[in-house]
C-alpha cells in the first residue's frame, strides 16, 4: 500500500514540470488576451458604441485564453479530453440557453438595436402600443418616459420584433379632426371656411397646406375632415390641434354653418293616440313648441399659446444625466 502511494507521488512529481508549463501557458494566454483586448484597434470596432466595444474586448480575451487551454492540453497529452470538454460545454450551453432564453434574447436584441440605432434619445416613439420619449437603451431594455411622466421599460426583444412609430424623425406632423356639417349646407363653402381658419392657427405650416375632405354621409350630417401640418420643432402638436378645433368651430359658427346634433326617430309599437279625441280647451304650448331664445354670443378669449412648452424636456434631461452616459444610443451614429 505504501509502496503504491510512493509510486503515485513519484509519478506526480515527475509530471509536475509539465503541469507547471501548462499552467504557465494558460496564464500567459490570459495575459496576452487582456493585452490585446485593450488595443486601440478594438476601439474602432465600437467607436460610437461602448456596449459593442466591451463585447469585442471580452470576446478577444476569452478566445485567446481558450487557445491557451487547448495548447496546455496538448502539452499534457490530453487532447482526447478536448472532445469531451467541448461536448460537455455544448450540452451545458443548450441547458443554459433554455434556462436563460429571455435574458439571452434581450441581450442579443440589445446588441442588434445598438448597431441599427432605430431611434435617438428624446425621440417620441410608439412601440407595441406604448408611447413615450426615449431615455436610454441598455443591454436588456429600452427605457421610455410616457407623456404622463412615468418610466416604462420595454424588453429589447419586444422592441426588436415590434413595429416602431417615430413621431420625431420627421419634424412636420399632420393632425386631423372631424366635424358634422348640416346636410342642407354648402359643403364647398364649409371647406373654404375651415381651411381659411386653419391658416390662422399659430403653428400650422403653409406647406403642406391645410385641407378639408368630405368623408361620409351620415344620417343627420355630412362628415367633414379637416387636417393641417405642425412644425414640432417650434410648436406643441396637441396644443396646435386643440387650438385648430376651437378656431374652426368659431369660424363655422360665424358663417352660420349648421353643425347639427344627431337626430333619432323612435317608433313605438302599440302606442295610443297622442292627441285626445274629446275636444277641450287648447293646451298651452309645450317647451318644445316654445320659440327658442337665441343666446348672445360671448366674445372669444385670448388665443392659446401653441409654442412648444417642453413639459417633459427637463425631466428627460435629468434622467439622461442620472445615467451618466450609460446608454447604447449615440447621436453621432447614423440612424437606421
Description:
Residues 318-330 have a biased composition (Basic and acidic residues). InterPro entries: LSM_dom_sf (IPR010920), MS_channel_C (IPR049278), MscS_archaea/bacteria_type (IPR045275), MscS_beta-dom_sf (IPR023408), MscS_channel_2nd (IPR006685), MscS_channel_C_sf (IPR011066), MscS_channel_TM-2 (IPR011014). GO terms for molecular function: mechanosensitive monoatomic ion channel activity. Pfam families: MS_channel_2nd, MS_channel_3rd. This protein has a 5-stranded antiparallel beta sheet, sandwiched between helices. It has a 3-stranded antiparallel beta sheet with strand order 6-8-7, with helices on one face. The chain has 336 residues and is α+β, with helices and mostly antiparallel strands. The chain has 9 helices and 8 strands. The chain folds into 3 domains: 2-99; 115-169 and 314-323, SH3 type barrels (Roll), CATH 2.30.30; 172-254, Alpha-Beta Plaits, CATH 3.30.70. A hairpin with a 5-residue loop joins β3 (141-145) and β4. The protein is elongated. α1 (2-37) packs antiparallel against α3. The two termini are 73 Å apart.
Question: What topology emerges from the helices and strands here?
Answer:
Blueprint lengths: L1 H36 L2 H6 L4 H26 L4 H20 L1 H16 L7 E4 L2 E8 L3 E5 L5 E5 H6 L2 E3 L5 E10 L5 H13 L11 E7 L4 E10 L5 H18 L58 H11 L13
Antiparallel strand pairs: 1-2, 1-5, 2-3, 3-4, 6-8, 7-8
Spatial order of strands in the largest sheet: 4-3-2-1-5
Class computed from helices, strands and strand pairing? alpha+beta
End-to-end separation? 73 Å
User: Share of helix among residues?
Assistant: 40-55%
Number of domains: 3
Please mark out the parts with pLDDT under 50 across 5 or more consecutive residues, or reply none: 275-280
Main sheet properties: 5 strands, antiparallel
N-to-C series of helices and strands: HHHHHEEEEHEEHEEHH
Strand % is 15-25%
Rg calc: 37 Å
Number of helices: 9
**Mean pLDDT rating:** 80
Number of strands: 8
Shape assignment: elongated
